[in-house]
Amino acid sequence: MSNDSIIEAWNTVLFDKFIRFQHILVDGLSSHSNTLLERNIHHKGSRVLDVGCGFGDTTLKLADMIGRNGKAVGVDCASKFIRAAEAGKAELGLQNANFVVADVQCDDLQGPYDYVFSRFGTMFFNLPGIAMKNIHSSLKASGRLDMIVWRKREENPWIYDAELKVKEIVPVVSHEETDQVHCGPGPFSMAGADMVSGMLKSAGFERISFERNDAEICVGKNLEEAVSFAMELGPAGEIIRLAGENGENLRGTVRSALTETLGKYSRNDGVWAPSSTWFISATK
Ligand SMILES: C[S@@+](CC[C@H](N)C(=O)[O-])C[C@H]1O[C@@H](n2cnc3c(N)ncnc32)[C@H](O)[C@@H]1O
Description:
CATH superfamily: Vaccinia Virus protein VP39
Shape: globular
Order of helices and strands: HHHEHEHEEHEHHEHHHHEE
Mean pLDDT: 94
Distance between the termini: 27 Å
Largest sheet: 8 strands, mixed
Oligomer: single chain
CATH architecture: 3-Layer(aba) Sandwich
CATH topology: Rossmann fold
Bound molecules: S-adenosylmethionine
Strand content: 15-25%
Number of strands: 8
């Protein structure tokens, strides 16, 4: 199954939207990754891989933690994200970080690594079992994988309530019904612990564990920004985009509806909503 259209989506429409909301994404998502990375489970001098690294902020954090004798490699299938990550590296002057364009489903990940990390970078593979086998092959014996993925939709209401509301207004066009590029399986594709542990087991991983992590995250500095964010990214944004002209014409109605839906999270210091992830760990 070709991954070309998913890669094109991450390199074009999705990249443009991620750049627009980079400040919300990096700060909000870091609430989850900082909790995990600050446990200091990686050793000085180790080789680490960051899967689906996006802007590379977690790769750079890892590079800083493992010290100059270590090596942190961030891989992403979208060359535009890799270019943005390289710019971030140049700004910080970290010499032990490298960024590489690679499709985790089929490309050489330049291992072997002591540790593989991913923050929300493993949920969009159209062949996740094959990608997990490739990640497994890139690890040294006894190497560890830590990935952060969203838990179920109902525990992430800032995404799910917006999706439900948009579905009431905009007719849903499935991936099969459109030739527009799309992100792949989507943010909740790894929410099911049974399914994911089975996949990791089949890929060769052992000692698989799931830890729930809850965090309130800021999804906009004000309600207007939170609504714009929901209308561009996540399942709600994708429904509007894939609906084409229909979606465009309904934007005004969607904006009023989402202002009400997300209004309950609005405070003086921004829009703060509950969110919930799995910290999934596994060993080779
Ligand atoms: C939701 S973003 C997460 C980015 C970053 N890890 C973060 O937390 O900000 C998902 C990332 O996975 C990348 N991605 C999707 N499919 C991929 C694949 N097959 N191989 C490598 N990267 C992939 C996308 O380009 C995107 O940068």
